[in-house]
Amino acid sequence: MDEQMAAWAVERPGPIDSRPIRRVRRPVPSPAPGEVLVKVLACGVCRTDLHLCEGDLEPRRPGVVPGHQVVGEVVDRAAGADRFEVGDRIGIAWLRGTDGSCEFCRSGAENLCPRSTYTGWDADGGFAEFAVVPQDYAYRIPASRPPEELAPLLCAGIIGYRSLLRSKLPPGGRLGLYGFGSSAHLTAQLAAAQGAEIFVLTRGEANQKLARELGAAFVGGAQDSPPVPLDSAIVFAPAGELVPVALQALKSGGTVAVAGIHLSDIPALNYERDLFRERDLRSVTSNTRRDGEELFRLASRLPIVAHTIVVPFGEVDRALSDLAHGRASGSLVMMGPAR
């Protein structure tokens, strides 16, 4: 194996068209005890990566390599890493580590651990030829499906699943989705497969077209009102002005879950109009490993398919620009470079 690899690193956060992420050469990382080294086969391009590049999320280390929806092949193991064999296909997701001892970890809410760490933020991620991951935070990935189909499930899918849980959607209920990118289009399929009726409120003709193709009962603009009151809604778009819009679309006792890691300011809420009659507003913070395991079990038996746009390794910067400007629908997935 070569000692050097290609990677994409955030050099100076700023608007994506100012090229804050650049292609660089880096040493191939060495796995620490309990970690495995993987050759990156595919890595989803997430809006969180865009937030990191543009500085909405402040980088936690200089020159960090983003990417946290990684499907890869194990090529090396360090001492104490015996969960996977060399040659196994595994997935690397956003959550990279927790302390395991705080009140949240002990209660099953490890996503709220104050010392949690994240792939592509605290440690280099998958916009590279190789990446390392603690074995306890990796997922077994079926080798029978193409890596580009599975990569979006590792964040868009998992966060969508947790958002669906947080939205408290009743069986057969009406679910509103505000924004219809990578996570929302997977969540729509998951909810519909379990009997929900889907209402999509989003900007962009491409996103609206995909929503119709996936069988949404109603597709409208982001500020439109659905034709019937909703049981639950999830705000995927990073637009705080959509929160009161979503709340007003609920029936009594309904719930809005806000799925993004970054959100613009929410306008002042009117208690009677937006919250009264026991309408709930909930946030979503990261995920637990159990969320990921449950999502992959569901994905193995339900017809959930990521609609992907494959991006060559050398065009990660363009893919992030397309994401920023709404020029892509479904899931953008970077393919690992051939060596």
What does this 3D model show about the protein?
The structure is a single chain. By secondary structure, this protein is α/β, with parallel strands linked by helices. 24% of the residues lie in helices and 27% in strands. The chain contains ten helices and 17 strands. It has helices at residues 47-54, 103-106, 147-150, 156-166, 182-193, 205-213, 242-248, 271-275, 289-301, 316-324, and strands at residues 4-10, 21-27, 35-45, 70-77, 89-92, 95-97, 117-118, 130-134, 138-140, 174-178, 197-201, 218-220, 230-235, 250-258, 280-283, 308-311, 331-335. Strands 3, 4, 5, 8, 9, 16 and 17 form a seven-stranded mixed sheet that branches. Strand 16 (308-311), helix 10 and strand 17 form a beta-alpha-beta unit. Helix 4 (156-166) packs across helix 5.
Key attributes of the depicted protein:
6-stranded parallel beta sheet, 339 residues, 27% strand, 7-stranded mixed beta sheet, globular, 24% helix, alpha/beta
